[in-house]
Amino acid sequence: MPAHVVTYATHAQGLFDALVQNELGVEVEVLGWGVPWTGFWDKFKGVHAFARTCAREDVIIFVDGFDSRIARAPSVAVRRWRQMPCDVLVSNEKCPWYIRRRIFGTCERGHTANAGMYMGSAWAVTEMTRLLVATGETYDQIAMNNLCRRLPFRVRVDAEEEVFRNVIWSNGESDDGDGRHAVFVSYPWGTHEDVRYKILRSAQDVHLARYFIPELVVVLLALVCLVALVVRRRRRRGALA
Question: How does the average pLDDT of the chain come out, rounded?
Answer without folding.
Answer: 83
